[in-house]
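Tutorial handout. Part one gives the primary structure; part two gives the three-dimensional structure as C-alpha cells.
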Amino acid sequence: QIDLVAHSLGGIFTRNAIKNLQDAHSSITVMSLTTLGSPWEPVMLVSPPNDPVAACDGSAMCEKISAGLQSIESLRPVVEFFQPASFSAWTTQQVGVLDKIPVTLIAGTYFTKVAGRADKWPNDGYIQYNAATARNISDAVLPIRSCFSEPYTHSLYTSKLVGEKDSAAITWNTQSALIVENAIRTAGTDKQLINRLGCPPPQ
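Part two.
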C-alpha cells in the first residue's frame, strides 16, 4: 500500500503511473493521491500558445515564464500536450483510474488581480486556481476529491523571484505539510469518501 504526493507536473506523471499499475494488474494499492499546484486542466502559461500576453492576463510573472517556456524547442511537446484539445483527450483516458482513490488538491493563490479573468486568477505563478482544483473535471475522472487553497507561490524558485521567504512556497510550508499528512492519515476511512469537499463548483 502506498500514498502518493505530487507537485506540479509530477501530478501528471503520477496519474499516468497509477494507470500503468492498474493496466499491469500490479499488487500495489494506491491509498491516496495528493497534488500540490498540479494542473488538472489546461494551464494558463500556454493557453493560447505562442501568446504569453493573452495567456497571462497581465501577470508579469506568468508572461516571463511563458515566454521562456515557449521559446525552448525541446519543450514544444509539453506546450502542445497542455493545449485544451490534447489535454482534454488525455484526461478522458483517465476515466476510472482514480475510482476508490481519494484525491486531495492543494492550490496556491499568491497572485491575484482585481477584475482579472476568472480562468486565470488567482494563481500560484504557474498554475491557476481552477486548474489546480480540477474545477471543471468531471466526477467520472475524479470521483473522490477534496480541495484546499492557500496564499502560496508555486515553488521555492517562484518565491525567490518575488522576494518572498521559502515558506511562501506551496511545497515548503507547515500548512501544506499538515494537509498532506491528514490526507495520508485518513486514507481508507469514511472521512475520505465525501466528494468535492471544499472544492469550487463547476463553471
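Part three, for discussion. The helical segments are 10-23, 52-56, 60-71, 76-81, 84-92, 129-132, 156-161, 174-185. The beta strands are 2-7, 30-36, 103-108, 145-150.
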